[in-house]
């Protein structure tokens, strides 16, 4: 259906306007201008910030430079989370552009993984896809693919090639018609006010009596606090790719259309803004 | 499932368009222009540095020549 393809394209080409500034305590030889960039929501920070790094390295002495890392209002940003998720989780209700601070020193070992090269991002990305396919098809689809097919998924993401990526990814989104959906839905629910990084459980797209499970059903089962009763004002927003889908949206359709390229539905539950 | 008859699907489509208007389209052009300006100012910095050093070379050559 043409309309569904539009959703896939809009998800893939989502961008976040971002302003990078150098941390005030970094020692520079001259002042560094801020750097502005439209960040792709579906990619990873360390994969798309080569230009940012280059821009700030121009004002730094080589001996003052260690591994680059980023924070937003004091929260170190995990490169292994998709960019769109980081923004939705930490910054959705702040003013645009998204204001990110760039660091070259004091790497926060306890909060962040090191990212020495793009092959580390690739390994992380492929392991997510494999985990998702284990849930959806008991790993059958990803295991039937060849090495070059795996490479095509990664190169599609790295080079922002929608058609190249989806030519392969559509196989990961197929399911037997008689089953009405995947075996389990690959999802992660992130909460801002929690020590747990995220919630992940086994959840099927269809109930045992044949009903289609919705986003609301998932939340009721996994994190009921996120859903407000009719008589109270909304306490939380449930955000995927920067939007709030209706709770009656079928989960199987969401999984097929609003997953990230890593094949997971990354769902942020954030406090609703109080006006 | 017909697109127009699924309010949840129409909602997703409209919300994505609205998101792109606010987050992408509103900033695309100005960020592009800013980056062009940044490139120009980087070029200017390089050129004026070179100009300064050429000037010093020139002065040094003249100051250092006896009998000039």
Automatic annotation (TrEMBL), chain A:
UniProt-recorded name of the protein: Autophagy protein 5
Its membrane topology: Peripheral membrane protein
GO BP terms in the entry: apoptotic process; autophagosome assembly; autophagy of mitochondrion; cellular response to nitrogen starvation; immune system process; negative regulation of programmed cell death; piecemeal microautophagy of the nucleus
Biological role stated in the UniProt entry: Involved in autophagic vesicle formation. May play an important role in the apoptotic process, possibly within the modified cytoskeleton. Its expression is a relatively late event in the apoptotic process, occurring downstream of caspase activity. Plays a crucial role in IFN-gamma-induced autophagic cell death by interacting with FADD.
Keywords in alphabetical order: Acetylation, Apoptosis, Autophagy, Cytoplasm, Immunity, Isopeptide bond, Membrane, Ubl conjugation
Record's subunit section: Forms a conjugate with ATG12. Part of the minor complex composed of 4 sets of ATG12-ATG5 and ATG16L1 (400 kDa); this complex interacts with ATG3 leading to disruption of ATG7 interaction and promotion of ATG8-like proteins lipidation. Forms an 800-kDa complex composed of ATG12-ATG5 and ATG16L2. The ATG12-ATG5 conjugate interacts with RAB33A; this interaction is bridged by ATG16L1 and promotes ATG12-ATG5-ATG16L1 complex recruitment to phagophores. Interacts with TECPR1; the interaction is direct and does not take place when ATG16L1 is associated with the ATG5-ATG12 conjugate.
Species per Swiss-Prot/TrEMBL record: Salmo trutta (Brown trout)
Domain Autophagy protein ATG5 UblA: 11-104
Pfam family, one: ATG5_HBR
Subcellular location: Cytoplasm; Preautophagosomal structure membrane
PANTHER family: AUTOPHAGY PROTEIN 5 (PTHR13040:SF2)
Main location, first listed in the record: cytoplasm
């Amino acid at each position: 259906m043409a309309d569904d393809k539009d959703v896939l394209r809009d998800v893939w080409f989502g961008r976040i306007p971002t302003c990078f500034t150098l941390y005030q305590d970094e020692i520079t030889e001259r002042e560094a201008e801020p750097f502005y960039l439209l960040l792709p929501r579906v990619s990873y920070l360390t994969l798309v910030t080569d230009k940012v790094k280059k821009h700030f390295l121009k004002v730094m002495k080589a001996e003052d430079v260690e591994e680059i890392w980023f924070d937003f209002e004091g929260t170190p940003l995990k490169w292994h989370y998709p960019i769109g998720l980081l923004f939705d989780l930490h910054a959705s209700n702040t003013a645009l552009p998204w204001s990110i601070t760039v660091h070259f020193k004091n790497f926060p070992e306890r909060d962040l993984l090191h990212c020495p090269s793009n092959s580390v991002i690739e390994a992380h990305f492929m392991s997510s896809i494999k985990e998702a396919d284990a849930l959806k098809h008991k790993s059958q689809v990803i295991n039937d693919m060849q090495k070059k097919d795996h490479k095509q998924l990664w190169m599609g993401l790295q080079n922002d090639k929608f058609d190249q990526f989806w030519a392969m990814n559509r196989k990961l989104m197929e399911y037997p018609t008689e089953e009405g959906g995947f075996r389990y839905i690959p999802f992660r629910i992130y909460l801002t006010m929690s020590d747990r990084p995220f919630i992940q459980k086994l959840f099927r797209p269809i109930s045992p009596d044949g009903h289609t499970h919705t986003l609301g059903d998932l939340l009721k089962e996994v994190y009921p606090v996120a859903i407000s009763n009719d008589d109270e004002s909304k306490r939380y927003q449930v955000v995927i790719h920067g939007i709030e889908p209706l709770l009656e949206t079928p989960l199987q359709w969401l999984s097929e259309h609003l997953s990230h390229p890593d094949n997971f539905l990354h769902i942020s539950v954030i406090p609703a803004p109080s006006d | 499932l017909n697109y127009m008859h699924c309010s949840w699907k129409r909602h997703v489509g409209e919300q994505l368009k609205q998101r792109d208007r606010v987050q992408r389209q509103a900033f695309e052009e100005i960020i592009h222009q800013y980056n062009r300006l940044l490139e120009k100012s980087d070029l200017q910095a390089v050129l004026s540095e070179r100009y300064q050093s050429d000037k010093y070379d020139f002065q040094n050559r003249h100051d250092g020549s006896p009998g000039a």
